[in-house]
Design goal:
- It is a single chain.
- The protein is an alpha/beta fold.
- It folds into 2 domains: 1-9 and 193-436, no CATH class; 38-129, no CATH class.
- Helices cover 52% and strands 8% of the residues.
- It has helices at 13-20, 56-63, 70-77, 113-118, 125-129, 150-157, 172-175, 188-205, 212-232, 242-250, 255-263, 269-283, 289-303, 307-310, 314-335, 338-350, 360-385, 390-404, 408-419, and strands at 25-28, 53-54, 78-80, 93-95, 132-137, 140-145, 165-168, 180-184.
- A 5-stranded mixed beta sheet has the order 7-1-6-5-8. It has a 3-stranded antiparallel beta sheet with strand order 2-4-3.
- It is globular.
Length: 436
C-alpha cells in the first residue's frame, strides 16, 4: 500500500492488548457454545486414523488398570514408542488403530470405552481436548476450536456476527494437562506490541466494508511491511513496528482506497484454476466418504467428470467456473460472506498466525492458497448442486480441514507447490486472491 496517511493507533488495540495480558484465559466468543455431540457426530474423530500419543503418566495408569474388559485391550493396542528421536514424556506410546482406521476403544454406540470405564480424566491429552486446543502467547493462555470437527465447524463457520475475544475461566480439567499446541515465548512489552499486530490482523479480516480479497491483500501488505522493518532493524526492539501498525490502522478511514487498490491488482483466473485443480488431482486420494462426496460434486460441477481429463480443457474449465460462480456460488456468499471470514479468523486464532511454524511469508502463502482451493472447490460444488447450503459448505470446509490440517503430507506438498512458483514476496502470490 502506498497511500500517505496520518498515523493513528487502532481504536481497539489498546483495550484488547490490556485484556489479553490479564491472568485469565482468552477465547473467541463462540468457544463456550461448543458441546461434543458424541454418538450423533457424522464424522467421528475416533474413525480418522490420526496418531494418538500417550504420555508416560497416562501409560503408567493404563498399565495398572484392573478392568476385566479394558485392561487386556489396553495392553494389546497401546504400543511403546521405540524410536529414540521420537520418544518423549508426551509421546511415550501410541494407540495402534484398526485396519479401517477406527480406534480400538470405540464401542458399537460410538462412545469411548476408556471414558466409560475410567472417566474422562483417564483420556490422553488429544482425546480429552479435541477439537479444543490450548496455546500460550507470552504470559497469556488462549483456547480455540479446530474446524476439522463437524460440530465445531458449525459453531465457528455459521457465527454471523464478527468474532470477538473474551475472557473466560480456565478449564480445571485442562489445567492439569501439559497440552500446549503453540508456545510462543515473549516478554511483557513484546507481547503487548505483538498483540497490537494480532488485533490489527483480526480487524482487517473482519473489515466487512471490503471484499474478502481486498482484506487478504491488505493483510499481505501489512505483513510484508512488518517483515521489512523487522529485517532492517538492528536493535531487536519489536516496538519498531508500531508506526507501521498505526499507518495501517489509519486506512480504516478510507475503505474505498483499499478496495480500489485491490481492483487494480492483476489476477490470472486460468492459472488459478489450473494450479488448484492440478494440486488437488495430485493429492486428494484415499479420502473418507464425506470428503469424497464433495470432490465428486466439484469434479462434476466444474470439470464435467474426471479431473485428470477435463482439467486440460482450459476453455471449458474457465467457462464452467464463470457460469457456476455467477449463478450458484455468488448468491449464497452475498448473504453468507462471514463463513469464509470466520474460517480465516479461526485459522489466525488456533495457529497464532502469523507467529506459527514458518515465516510470515510462508504462512501467508499457505493461507492464500488454502483459501483459493476452498473457493474453487465450492464453485464446482455449487455448479453440481445448482446452489449452496450451509450444510454443504460446512461439510466441505470441515472435511477439507480434516484432510489437510492433520496431514503432514498435505503440508509438505503445499509447501512444495508454493516454492515451485518462485515467489519472493507477498505480492507475488496475491493474484490468487482474485475470484473473477
Amino acid at each position: 500500500m502506498t497511500k500517505k496517511v496520518k498515523k493513528r493507533s487502532a481504536s481497539r488495540s489498546g483495550s484488547a492488548t490490556r485484556s489479553v495480558l490479564q491472568k485469565q484465559v482468552v477465547q473467541p466468543d463462540y468457544y463456550q457454545k461448543f458441546q461434543c455431540i458424541g454418538s450423533d457426530c457424522e464424522d467421528n474423530c475416533c474413525c480418522a486414523g490420526w496418531r494418538v500419543d500417550i504420555d508416560s503418566a497416562t501409560w503408567q495408569r493404563y498399565q495398572s488398570c484392573q478392568s476385566e474388559t479394558l485392561a487386556p485391550l489396553l495392553r494389546e493396542v497401546i504400543q511403546l514408542e521405540t524410536r529414540p528421536e521420537k520418544k518423549s514424556p508426551k509421546s511415550f506410546a501410541s494407540v495402534r488403530f484398526q485396519p479401517d482406521r477406527r480406534c480400538p476403544f470405540l464401542q458399537a454406540d460410538m462412545l469411548c470405552m476408556i471414558q466409560r470405564e475410567l472417566g474422562s480424566e483417564a483420556l490422553s491429552d488429544i482425546c480429552a481436548l479435541y477439537p479444543r486446543l490450548i496455546n500460550q502467547f507470552g504470559r497469556q493462555q488462549e483456547y480455540g476450536l479446530v474446524v476439522s470437527c463437524p460440530e465445531a465447524a458449525r459453531v465457528v463457520l455459521l457465527h454471523p456476527d464478527p468474532i470477538t475475544l473474551v475472557m473466560g475461566e480456565a478449564d480445571p480439567a485442562f489445567a492439569k494437562r501439559d497440552a500446549i499446541t503453540y508456545n510462543y515465548l515473549l516478554g511483557p512489552i513484546d507481547t503487548q506490541v505483538m498483540n497490537q499486530l494480532r488485533v490489527l490482523v483480526l480487524r482487517i479480516l473482519q473489515w466487512r466494508e471490503l471484499s474478502l480479497g481486498a482484506r487478504m491483500m491488505l493483510l499481505g501488505s501489512l505483513l510484508d511491511e512488518v517483515s521489512r522493518v523487522r529485517s532492517a532493524g538492528r536493535s531487536g526492539n519489536v516496538a519498531e513496528i508500531v508506526p507501521v501498525l498505526e499507518t495501517y490502522a489509519a486506512l480504516f478511514a478510507d475503505p474505498g482506497y483499499v478496495e480500489g487498490e485491490f481492483d487494480r491488482l492483476p489476477g490470472d483466473l486460468p492459472r488459478k484454476l489450473q494450479s488448484t485443480t492440478g494440486f488437488l488431482a495430485d493429492f486428494l486420494t484415499s479420502v473418507d466418504p464425506r470428503f469424497k462426496e464433495c470432490i465428486l460434486a466439484f469434479a462434476d460441477g466444474l470439470l464435467g467428470g474426471e479431473a485428470s481429463d477435463s482439467a486440460r480443457d482450459t476453455t471449458s474449465l474457465f467457462g464452467n467456473y464463470q457460469k457456476n460462480y455467477d449463478q450458484y456460488y455468488l448468491p449464497y456468499f452475498r448473504d453468507k460472506g462471514y463463513v469464509l471470514e470466520n474460517y480465516l479468523v479461526n485459522d489466525v486464532l488456533v495457529n497464532i498466525f502469523p507467529f506459527g511454524r514458518g515465516s510470515f511469508l510462508e504462512l501467508y502463502r499457505a493461507m492464500v492458497f488454502n483459501l483459493a482451493i476452498i473457493q474453487v472447490m465450492l464453485v464446482g460444488m455449487a455448479g453440481h448442486y445448482k446452489g449452496l447450503t450451509d450444510a454443504r459448505v460446512v461439510q466441505f470446509i470441515q472435511t477439507f480441514t480434516r484432510r489437510s490440517a492433520h496431514n503432514d503430507s498435505y503440508l509438505r506438498k503445499l509447501t512444495e507447490a508454493l516454492t515451485d512458483k518462485q515467489a519472493p514476496s507477498f505480492v507475488e502470490v496475491m493474484w490468487m486472491l482474485k475470484e473473477r
